[in-house]
């Protein structure tokens, strides 16, 4: 059975707290596992969450501040120790290559050859995902150091309409032929096209936006996604501080979600400056401007992707 969900391995910002570990997010997608920003302690958090090194097929680092990358050595060494056989692609800002190399080889261990480095550069870059059932792009953001957000997209598909097939006498092996070739000859000699018997099934989309000020890249990544995983380090009362340090507020995250037509907004990366009793304010500020589903995450939360969008069938022909 395919699984599409987000495992939250950590949700603090620069400083971990008793309740929140450094960053770490495992997006599970039909047998693939995209590990975003593994901060310190990620390996242990994965154990608590029931995830294994063998689940990881991508490591995506947004930038090289410690709370977003200090877990890389443990993850790489665990991949090696557990004998992970499949390739693990590692995306990270190309300008941070020296930091990646230090983290990748931080201590003595029996190395692995499955890690494939995918340095990211420029304003926008499409990553080679091979035969994976999704595309992955990186978009430059606005932070004091070079930082990128990531967007995963599933191609649109089709949903067959049984009543339309029945009306045209298309059944059994003819259905598969129709799906594969786009047209088929029905038993009565008519040519039946795929467009007549199907409707478009929108592919699911997820965006991952960490440390950044508001900028064009944030909106582009968030546009039309089913799930937006986004930092909300500060409350709106500290918006000036957020801008100074290159971060977002909860209210800004809500506005990004509203303007982008996001379905599920996931707030994370909370500053340690706020008290536990202030937590609800992050959700409240985002929900004041965004009317969709809002999740304020905690470590080890599992958040399923929203159900697929339903497209309206084409008019009968």
UniProtKB/TrEMBL annotation:
Active-site residue numbers: 67
Function comment: Zinc phosphodiesterase, which displays some tRNA 3'-processing endonuclease activity. Probably involved in tRNA maturation, by removing a 3'-trailer from precursor tRNA.
Domain Metallo-beta-lactamase: 20-121, 201-270
Keyword rRNA-binding recorded: no
Family to which this protein belongs: Belongs to the RNase Z family.
PANTHER family recorded: ZINC PHOSPHODIESTERASE ELAC PROTEIN 1
EC number: 3.1.26.11
Summary of subunit composition and partner proteins: Homodimer.
Pfam family, one: Lactamase_B_2
Superkingdom of the source species: Bacteria
Transmembrane spans: none
Residues binding Zn(2+) 1, per UniProt: 63, 65, 143, 211
Free-text cofactor note: Binds 2 Zn(2+) ions.
Cofactor: Zn(2+)
Alphabetic keyword roster: Endonuclease, Hydrolase, Metal-binding, Nuclease, tRNA processing, Zinc
The reaction(s) this protein catalyses: Endonucleolytic cleavage of RNA, removing extra 3' nucleotides from tRNA precursor, generating 3' termini of tRNAs. A 3'-hydroxy group is left at the tRNA terminus and a 5'-phosphoryl group is left at the trailer molecule
First-tier enzyme category under EC: hydrolase
Gene3D superfamilies the UniProt entry points to: Ribonuclease Z/Hydroxyacylglutathione hydrolase-like
Name used for this protein in its record: Ribonuclease Z
Binding site for Zn(2+) 2: 67-68, 211, 269
InterPro entries, alphabetized: Metallo-B-lactamas, RibonucZ/Hydroxyglut_hydro, RNase_Z/BN
Gene encoding the protein: rnz
């Amino acid at each position: 059975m395919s699984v599409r969900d987000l495992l939250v391995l950590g949700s603090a910002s620069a400083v971990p707290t008793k309740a929140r570990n450094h960053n770490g997010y495992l997006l599970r997608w039909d047998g693939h596992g995209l590990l975003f920003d593994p901060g310190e302690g990620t390996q242990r958090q994965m154990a608590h969450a029931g995830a294994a090194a063998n689940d990881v097929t991508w490591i995506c680092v947004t930038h090289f501040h410690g709370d977003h990358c200090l877990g890389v050595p443990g993850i790489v060494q665990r991949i090696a120790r557990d004998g992970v056989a499949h390739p693990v692609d590692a995306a990270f800002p190309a300008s941070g290559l020296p930091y990646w190399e230090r983290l990748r080889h931080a201590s003595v261990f029996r190395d692995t050859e499955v890690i494939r480095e995918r340095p990211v550069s420029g304003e926008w870059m499409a990553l080679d995902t091979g035969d994976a059932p999704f595309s992955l792009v990186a978009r430059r953001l606005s932070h004091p150091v070079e930082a990128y957000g990531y967007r995963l997209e599933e191609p649109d598909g089709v949903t067959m309409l049984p009543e339309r097939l029945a009306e045209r006498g298309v059944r059994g092996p003819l259905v598969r032929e129709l799906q594969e070739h786009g047209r088929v000859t029905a038993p009565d000699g008519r040519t039946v096209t795929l467009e007549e018997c199907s409707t478009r099934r929108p592919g699911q989309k997820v965006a991952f936006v960490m440390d950044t000020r508001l900028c064009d890249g944030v909106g582009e990544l968030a546009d039309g996604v089913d799930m937006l995983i986004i930092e909300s380090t500060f409350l709106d009362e500290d918006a000036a501080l957020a801008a100074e340090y290159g971060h977002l507020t909860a209210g800004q995250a809500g506005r990004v979600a509203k303007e982008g037509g996001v379905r599920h907004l996931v707030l994370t990366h909370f500053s340690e400056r706020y008290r536990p009793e202030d937590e609800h304010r992050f959700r409240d500020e985002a929900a004041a401007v965004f009317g969709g589903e809002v999740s304020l995450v905690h470590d080890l939360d599992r958040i399923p992707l929203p159900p697929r969008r339903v497209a309206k069938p084409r008019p009968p022909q």
